[in-house]
């Protein structure tokens, strides 16, 4: 059960990372990266690292995404 | 070899994520996209370090009345906490630079910037 | 051509990594080197030695306090560098100060009323949770940095919903530099205090009679990191957002 859950999370991570690579819309890429961070935080909680999971949820999925969104708003949204 | 890789699946997945991040950094031209790739590489490395400290059936390293061994190793977790902070600092500085580059040059595509020189 | 080059580079990177990973000790076994050296000692005696039930916080603030001081310096330097990069026209801040002095608050950007209402409704609870995470970091998961990130995110959400004019008052002009430097200042204060008590910079007294002093030193560090982190994130956001 635990191993299956782990493998599901890892597969989701790899899929979202590939989706970030493929997305032409930077806004979409940033939001996908936010979900990647959130699943990473689930994985770390599952591995017995609640401190790191909490940091990743607050910083990776929160602050980093907001900073990316601001940068996209101040520059361009489409990747050429 | 394949059996060893299957046993160490929690170490193999960060390698795959690391390579995806590296691919984004090398192959994409957009600077913001490159930094998304760098963030993916960073989290892959953190994930690898966390996986090193895991014990089968282990608890989080928090002592208390009802805590029982085994515990996951606390040292990798403390290292990664520091690493996450440094990662967000570099991202913030890099995005500031990207905004400045856009104001100055009007583009954030690496190849167009190279042509401008 | 470029695609072939990228693929070759990725393969050259991946193969040594995979070989190295396959040769590591099996995942999850307690005999691996990570678990046998200092980790074992931290787990055995960390709770009483470092004075924190949460061993990760104990390692961060007590055993590896200098590392954390370095981390705090990195994030403060990132703030300084970010501000230096983004300040272009000197006129703008002055113009803003004039309009603030006249009392006209810039109109908040259009936001969905549902989002606006929910953010304002939840704001006190989020702030309470952040303070809990900061002050309880040595017992439960959490700590100064996590709480600081939550506070900073709350400030950013409020700024997006209410507009910059109304949240500016949360960061008064005079107190702002002190808030941004709070983490560094708390490390210097606690470090010097530790030097006076034990003879080492950032040393924590181990005697049982000084238990309360040790607890207080940790709380000051946590609060400093939390406040400093929140102020730094909020300032970076405002600076990047300003046109």
* End-to-end Cα distance of chain A: 44 Å
- What's the gyration radius of chain B in Å? 19 Å
Helical fraction of chain B = over 70%
Domains of chain B (count): 1
Strand content of chain A: under 5%
Structural class of chain A: mainly alpha
User: For the report, how would you describe the main beta sheet of chain B?
Assistant: none
Explained architecture:
With 80 residues, chain A is mainly alpha-helical. Chain A is flat, with a radius of gyration of 14 Å. In chain A, helix 2 runs antiparallel to helix 3 (50-74). Chain A has helices spanning 2-22, 26-46, 50-74. Chain B is mainly α. Chain B has one domain (2-57, 69-116): Helix Hairpins (Orthogonal Bundle), CATH 1.10.287.3510. Helices cover 74% and strands 0% of the residues of chain B. Chain B has five helices and no strands. Chain C is mainly α. Chain C has one domain (54-241). Helix content of chain C is 74%, strand content 0%. The two termini of chain C are 40 Å apart. Classes of the chains: A mainly alpha (80), B mainly alpha (117), C mainly alpha (243). Chains in contact: A-B, A-C, B-C.
Summarize, please.
With 117 residues, chain B is mostly helical. Helices cover 74% and strands 0% of the residues of chain B.
Primary descriptors:
heterotrimer, B: 117 residues, mainly alpha, Helix Hairpins, 5 helices, C: 243 residues, 74% helix
């Amino acid at each position: 059960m635990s191993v299956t859950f782990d493998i599901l999370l890892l597969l989701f991570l790899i899929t979202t990372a590939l989706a970030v690579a493929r997305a032409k819309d930077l806004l979409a890429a940033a939001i996908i990266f936010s979900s990647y961070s959130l699943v990473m935080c689930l994985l770390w909680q599952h591995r017995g690292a609640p401190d790191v999971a909490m940091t990743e949820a607050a910083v990776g999925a929160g602050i980093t995404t907001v900073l990316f969104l601001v940068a996209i708003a101040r520059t361009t949204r489409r990747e050429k | 070899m394949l059996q060893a890789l299957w046993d160490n699946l929690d170490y193999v997945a960060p390698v795959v994520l690391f390579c995806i991040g590296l691919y984004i950094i090398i192959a994409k031209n957009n600077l913001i996209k490159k930094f998304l790739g760098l963030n993916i590489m960073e989290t892959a490395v953190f994930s690898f370090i966390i996986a090193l400290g895991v014990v089968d059936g282990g608890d989080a390293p928090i002592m208390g009345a009802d805590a029982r061994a085994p515990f996951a190793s606390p040292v990798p977790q403390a290292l990664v906490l520091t690493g996450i902070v440094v990662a967000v600092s570099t991202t913030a500085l890099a995005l500031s630079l990207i905004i400045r580059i856009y104001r100055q040059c009007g583009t954030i595509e690496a190849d167009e910037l190279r042509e401008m020189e | 051509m470029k695609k072939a080059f990228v693929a070759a580079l990725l393969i050259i990177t991946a193969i040594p990594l995979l070989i190295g990973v396959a040769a590591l000790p099996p995942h999850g076994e307690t005999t691996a080197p990570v678990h046998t050296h200092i980790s074992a000692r931290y787990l055995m005696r960390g709770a009483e030695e470092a004075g924190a039930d949460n061993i990760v916080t104990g390692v961060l603030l007590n055993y590896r306090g200098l590392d954390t001081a370095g981390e705090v310096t990195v994030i403060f330097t990132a703030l300084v560098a970010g501000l230096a990069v983004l300040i272009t026209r000197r006129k703008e801040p002055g113009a803003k100060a004039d309009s603030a002095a006249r009392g006209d608050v810039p109109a908040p950007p259009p936001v969905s009323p549902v989002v606006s209402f929910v953010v304002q409704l939840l704001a006190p609870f989020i702030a309470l949770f952040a303070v809990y995470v900061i002050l309880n970091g040595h017992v439960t998961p959490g700590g100064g940095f996590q709480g600081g990130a939550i506070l900073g995110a709350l400030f950013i959400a409020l700024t997006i919903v209410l507009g910059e004019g109304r949240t500016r008052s949360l960061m008064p002009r005079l107190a702002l530099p002190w808030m941004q430097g709070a983490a560094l200042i708390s490390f210097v204060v606690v470090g010097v205090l530790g030097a006076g008590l034990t003879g080492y910079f950032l040393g924590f007294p181990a005697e049982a009679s000084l238990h309360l002093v040790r607890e207080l030193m940790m709380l000051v560090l946590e609060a400093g990191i939390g406040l400093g982190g929140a102020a730094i994130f909020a300032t970076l956001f405002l600076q990047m957002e300003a046109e």
